[in-house]
Each structure stands twice: as C-alpha cells, then as structure tokens.
Amino acid sequence: MTHRIASRLVQSALVLLVMSFVVYALMGLMPGDPVDLMVAADPNLSAADAARLKALYGLDRPWTERYLAWLGQAVRGELGWSRLYAKPVAAALAPALVNTLILMGTAMAVALMVAIPLGIAASRRPGSAFDHVVNLLAFASVSLPTFWLGLMLMVVFAVTLGWLPAGGMEEVGAIEGMWGGLGDRLRHMVLPVTTLAVAGMGQYVRHARAAMLGEARQDYVRTALAKGCSPGRVVWRHQLRNAAAPVVTIIALDLGSLFSGALIAETVFAWPGMGRLIYEAVMGNDFNLALTGLLLATAMTLMGSMLADLAYGWLDPRTVKQ
Amino acid sequence: MPPPYRLVVLVLALCAALAQPVRAKDDLTIGITQYPATFHPNIESMLAKTYILDMATRPFTAFDAEWKLVCMLCERLPTIENGLAVAEKTPEGKPGVALSFTIKAGAKWGDGKPVTTEDVMFTWQVGKHPLSGVADAELYRRILRVEIKDERNFVLHLDRLTFDYNAINDFRIVPAHIEAPRFFDAPGEYRNRTAYDQDSANPGLYNGPYRIASAVQGSHVVLVPNAHWNGAKPAFARIVVKTVENTAALEANLLSGGVDMIAGELGLPLEQAIAFEKREGQKKGNGRFTVLYKPGLVYEHLDVNLASPVLADQRVRQALMWGMDREAISKQLFAGRQPVAHSAVNPLDGVHAADVPRYSFDAAKAAALLDQAGWRMNGGGRRNAQGEALVLEIATTAGNRSRELVSQVLQGQWRRLGIDVRLKSEPPRVFFGDTVTRRRFPHLALFAWYSAPESVPRSTLHSTMIPREDNNFSGQNYTGYGNPRMDELLDAIEVELDRKKRTALWRELQLLYARDLPALPLFFKADAHILPKALKGVVPTGHQDPTTLWVETWRWE
Fold it and tell me: Which of A46, A57, A98 to probe the B interface (max B CBs under 10 A)?
C-alpha cells in the first residue's frame, strides 16, 4: 500500500510539473497583455509608459525565461505576488478558496444527499412511473445551463417573491450577532447552492441508479433474497457497497471542483470564489495567481483520484490484491 | 419524510426565521460590474477604482458636470490672467510654466493630519519614479521641479506651456506620513507594499467626504463618512459598493433591493437599460427608478486601415459614410439615446465645430462615389475593372452586444450598396492586444476611444504615432493616417493659449477629419444611470471624472 501511494505521489508531481508548463505556455502565448489593453483603452498612456510598465511587470521578457524563474521560486515555496490583487498569492487565494469550499462543499453534499437515495429508489422499481420521473429530472439536471437556472431561481425567489437575496455572500453589516450572521449567510447560500446542487445531481442519480441496477442482477443478491434476507437489508448492506465504486470515482473526480470553483454560478451570484479569481487571473496575465490556483485544483483532482483508488481497496479488497 | 428533505425544509425555515435584513435609511448600496485591482490612486488605470476612490479622495483639479476645469483640493485655479500661472523658460531654454497652488484650507486626511506640501512633494517623487508602478506618469515627468513655499503653498514648474497647462487632474495626492516609509525603503516593491492595498481601511489614506472602512476582495467595498472632511456634510452613514459582474444578475439585484442604484459608469449596457426603463414605465406609478442617459466622451467609431488599397481611396471612405444610416441605427437600437457622432469631438465639448460636414444617409450619393472610384455594380455586387469584388471586413470585440448589433446593421446597409461585408468578432484580449494594436485588421475595426474634454488627439492622428514593427508597435494611430497639415494643427493646438485662435484650429482639424475620414464616426456612447426616484443630487458628467466626485451632494429625499 505504501509503495502504491508513493508511486501515485510521484506520478502526481510529474503531472503538476507538466501542467504548470502547459498553463504557463498557453498564457504566455495568448496575444496581448494587460498593458496593451490599458494602452488601447487610454490614449493618454504614452509608449514610454507602456514600455516602463511592461519592464516593471516582467512582460517584456520571453515567457520561457519567466516560467523558469517562477518554477525556481515555486520549488522554494515562494508563490510570489498577485499583480491583479496587489498582495501575496496566498493572501489573494485564501479568502476565495474558503468561499469556494463553503459553496461547492455544501452544493456537493446536498446533491449527494438527494441524488443517491433517489438513484437507489429508482433502481428498485425500474420502468415504473417513479423511475421515469427520476430519469427525466436527472436528464433535465444534466441539460439545464447553470446560468439560466441561476437566473430563473433569482427571478422567482429574489425578484418576484422577495424571499431570498439575489446575490453576494452577506448583507453588509445589516445583521448583528452570531445567529443573525449565520442566518444571513445561509439565506445568501440558498440560491447558489440550489443551482449547483441541481446541476450536479443528475449525474449522481444516473450513476447510482445504473450501478445499483447492475448489482441487482448479480447472483449474490438473488442468493441473499432466497436465504430470506429482507430486500432493504440486501440493498443497504450488500448491493450498495458493491455499487459504490463507480459513484465514488465520480465524486472523487469532482473533488477538484471544490477548489477550482464554479465560474458561471459565482459570476451570476456575485460569489467571490476561486472560479472567478482564476478566470480573472488568466485573462489579466496574473501568472502567479493563475498558476497557483490552477495547480491547486489539479492537485486536488489528483488527490481525489488517489483517494478513490484507496476507497476501492476498502470497498472491494480484491482490487488491492490484483 | 425522508431525512434529506427534512434537512432542506429545516434550512429554509432557519433562513426565514433568522434573518430578514432591514436596510437603514441613511445607507446607499451601489451596484457596479467590476472590482478594483488596487486602491492606490496612481497605480493601474481602472474605472472601478476611480469610481470608488473619487468618494474618498480629491484631486487638485477636475472637470465638473459642465466640463469646466475647477479646483477641488486647491483654493484657486492658476491662470495666466490671475497671475498664478507664469510663463518661464526651462533650463534648456524652452517655454515652460510655473503654477502656484494653495492647498484648500482645512483639507485633512481621515486621521486628522493636515494635507500639506510634504504630501505634494512625496507624490511627485513617487509619480516620476520609474519603478513605482504609476500607470499614467506623463504629468509627473512633465513637472521639472516642485518648489515648496510653506505648508500649504507650492509651485509646480512644468517643462512646456500648453493650453491645458493648469489641468493637473492626474496629480492624485497620497499621504507622505503613511506611504513614505513604504516607498523609500524599496521603490521597486512599493506597488506591492502600499498601504492602499495592505491596510485599505486606514483612515489616513483618504481626504474626501468618505473613507474606505472595509473591502472584501471581489465582493464589496464599504465607505463611511470621513470625520475630518471640511466640505459639505455627507448624507449617508454608509455607502456600500457591490460588485456584480453579470449584468442580468445586477438588474435582478436592483429589482430585489440588493442594490439601490446602478452606476452609469460601470453598469448595464445601453440596450439593457432601455429595456429595463420600458418595463419600469409599464409598472403602476411608473416604477421606482429613474434612468438618466448621458452621452459622453466614449467615441464609438470604425478605424479604417488606410494601408488597404480599397480604403486608401477617399471616395470609398466617403461612400461608406453616405451609405450608413446612423440616425436609423440610433433610433432602432438605442431608442435615440446614443447620439450620432459627426466628428471625434463631442458637441458638449467647447471646441466642437457645429459646421462640420454631416454625412446623412444618402444611398444615391454613396453609389455615385463608388462608381467614380471604379467599383461598379456587376451581377448583384460591386466589382472593379479587374473583376474583383468589393469585400470589406468589420472586426470588433466579441461579447459587446451593442457593437455586434451595429456591425450587423452596417453589414445590411452596405450590402444594399453592393458591398460584400464580412463580420469578425474577437475576444477583447486578442482584438486590442494584437489585431488593432498591430494593425492586423484588413479593413475596418469597430471600437471606442475614451478621452477627456478638449483632449488633443495626437496619439491617434499624428503621423509619428503610427504603430510599426520598427517602433515596437508604439503609438495609437492604428489607421496609419498621415497628413502634414493635421500634424501642424495638432502641434499648434497644444501650444495655442488664446481660446479663440485655438477654437479656430480645432475647427480646421474637425473639417480635415471629416474630409479625410481616417476613422468613420458612429456614436457617442451614452451611460445609463439607474437611480431610485428618492435619490437626489447625482449629476452624470459624461467624461472621465465620475459622478462620485460630487458624492457629498447625494442624498435621500
């Protein structure tokens, strides 16, 4: 097991190295830079100003040279400064990361809490009206564009009914005290969490249903039922454990999104999370911030994949032996 | 009820029970679409920063809502007439000017320390330092010397005497008592160490009616009254500036009470504001909001690549002008709120020439000019003697709905003349970072220039400002226009102090522009300020100094 983990860690480090190079190259090869955009928008900025600013921000050097300098610093644990936010990269990332973890973590938890029982319930009555309804909802969830769903929820619950706030993380200073603050936060979370949970639910429902249906046809299920085991016990104690592997894979791969955020939902609901931060950093040529954000998301996806592998071992010890 | 549903119901019940926010009547929440990268007045050039900072800091001079230059942090505007501006020679023997300023009596930073000439000297040192990160350093470079008379009086010695000699709008003062140690320790690191970003809530950084009390990155900025402000008492106990990038979500925030108003400078696109106004007008009592439209200095136009053999012919350019029905576009797409531009100078500008030739829609005239230029109708389209079709490409910024619509309508209008028009939309990053700045658009590029009142268009029209490989693509004369008379006019306008003579020169410049058509004028973009009816005192300016520079006059009625 130790050897397996060590091997995966080495592989992950290599992937991160390649990713850093690819991301840096793509950003470096994009036409224009922030100073070009500044000059194009403001005729008062002279050519001398543009040259001075490019030199100051290192934009006049080849991207390969800048990449090597960045890599050298990163190896020493120095993430550098964010040009866009005028603060150390860690300080710029930390609040956005926390906001994203709160939003995405809650959305994922809600999606799983609703989707897994629905998928299991649908798999127990395949072809029934209930199964058809669940399938339809799952397809709707996968097909609905996030921005549209978010805007519709906003129009209904914030504009028309006035029950919930349209966006942001809090009502600035309007509510005092811990409980008031918590309630305010929860109210602000309802719409974005619902949007993301609905958007993510579909795939979990479909995977859970398919895996459970696959297991239902296995001999051990038939044997257990023949031996007098109750259907509920068979489902929850035997079938679910075997059906969990594909669902765990999907969840593990989604772990990266807990750290990379959801650009569209964050933009629609003015939620200052990682999605918006990374997008702005990429578009603004803030190499330090964009690279750290993207590599963090990659690292977490790799970590999730590794955890999925370990979970397989726990769910089905035969995979370890193989 | 299964456990998951019980939890959802519980959360909703908790939400409803725990918090029903009530906004205080002396609060104002403004919605904008951008969050500033920095709060330092001189580092980076960004509208969101200017919008917020103008509530908290004051420049020495600015343009007011009537586009007149006024003193804000000084007692009197120095002029040659009042003797506070004196022509002098620079050490190289060139004509320069000395400007005497007195800092406004009672001007204080938010920590109670007075604004002094020490701050002026420090700001100049930061501004001219090549490593400080100041974006627009032109003014600081032009100041040869700062002469300190006492705590409130100082003289700026400038290296040239131009007509706008007393406009020092870009001189944005910063407090030496807070910033000097951070700067002098390591000037190259100053942009990362400035208190404006490391300690933005420090009251000592602000000298305006409000000061920044807190800022949450990417989300909002809270401003509270500056206790040491010496001017008119600000009306709000708190102003919150909220960032909502998506304009549909911003509108929903306005309707749901999440924000009280949407800033015109950084708010809804014009077509969305027009639709919003229409819907509001249909409501009982005509709704809660007023929409103020202010056409300003954002000049939408088509830059012409004069290197293109087709467009090098002036007759073709003029034909394109006659063949555009801009009045109809303004009426149909912008409900007449976006006025047609007849030159690059806005009619609100004092130097606008009213008699500049107007290209009203005239398809017959356009067709005749194309015929004269050798492009004749042949098989449904125009072709030259060699049988080549007249094909033009309009490039513009992707995602800018109004520009994409305008280019589509122009395509239709010019097609009726027999011109095959192709459209190309590019992300702003590619469009401004490469296509326009390196003159890679084959024919026409649709975008806007943002300028100041009586801003001399040297960078866009002077022949020395054409971006080329050998000058590392510096300059903004993207059309490649070169006319010796235009160069002379640009040089002459800058140094002509006599207003009457200067206006005559401006008139000639506009006539020449209308004849040569290095760019095809379209519209002056209008900002839509969406305000609650109870909010009074907001006066849109239409230029680069936003409404917030007079925020102390805003109040609820």
Answer: A46
Q: In chain B, which residue's Cα lies nearest the Cα of A32?
A: B433
Query: Which segment of A111-115, A137-141, A317-321 scores lowest on mean pLDDT?
Result: A317-321
Residues near B81 by beta carbon (within 8 Å), at least 6 away in sequence: none
Q: What is the mean pLDDT of chain A?
A: 84
pLDDT of residue B265: 92
Of chain A, the percentage scoring pLDDT greater than 70 comes to 93
Cβ neighbours, 10 Å, residue A222: 12
Under an 8 A CB cutoff, do B252 and A151 touch? yes
β-bridge partners, B531: B290
CB contact under 8 A, A84 and B37: yes
Fold of A90-319: MetI-like fold (1.10.3720)
Domain ranges within chain B, ordered by starting residue: 20-57+195-295+527-556, 69-179, 297-525
What pLDDT score does B10 carry?
Answer: 59
Q: Which CATH architecture has domain B20-57+195-295+527-556?
A: 3-Layer(aba) Sandwich (3.40)
pLDDT reading at A179 higher than 70: no
CB contact under 8 A, A187 and B19: yes
Q: How many residues does chain B have?
A: 557
Residue from A59, A154, A164, A266 to probe the interface with B (highest B Cβ count within 10 Å) = A154
B99: contact with A, CB 8 A cutoff: no
- The 10s digit of each residue's pLDDT in B115-164 is 999 999 999 999 999 888 887 788 898 999 999 999 999 999 999 999 99
- Out of 3.30.450.20, 3.50.50.60, 3.90.76.10, 2.40.160.100, which CATH number does the structure's domain B69-179 have? 3.90.76.10
CA distance A246 to A227: 28
Residue the block writes with tokens 């549903």: B5
Which pLDDT band, with edges at 50, 70 and 90, does B19 fall under?
A: very low
Contacts of B86-90 spanning 24+ positions with Cβ under 8 A: B87/B161, B88/B157, B90/B144, B90/B157, B90/B159, B90/B160
Q: How far apart are the CA of B33 and the nearest CA of chain A, in angstroms?
A: 10
**What ipTM was estimated for this complex?**
0.79
Domain boundaries, chain A: 2-86, 90-319
A246/B438 Cα distance (integer angstroms):
52
CB contact under 8 A, A172 and B14: no
Q: Does B37 touch chain A (CB under 8 A)?
A: yes
User: Strand locations in chain A, DSSP E?
Assistant: 81-82, 87-88
User: Could you tell me if B194 and B175 are in contact, meaning their C-beta atoms sit under 8 angstroms apart?
Assistant: no
Number of H helices, E strands in chain B: 17, 20
- B257 touches A: beta carbon within 8 Å: yes
What residues of B are in contact with residue A158 (Cβ under 8 Å)? 252-253, 255-256, 258
The pair of structure tokens assigned to B260 is: 């009280």
B30 half-sphere exposure, CB direction, 13 A CA radius: 28
Q: CATH fold of B297-525, please?
A: Dipeptide-binding Protein; domain 3 (3.10.105)
Residue A144 has pLDDT above 60, yes or no: yes
* pLDDT tens figures, A55-89: 888 888 888 888 898 888 888 888 888 888 888 89
Angle between helices A63-75 and A287-315 (to 10 degrees): 50
Instruction: Tell if the CB–CB gap between A174 and B194 is shorter than 8 Å.
Output: no
Distance from CA of B72 to the nearest CA of A (A): 22
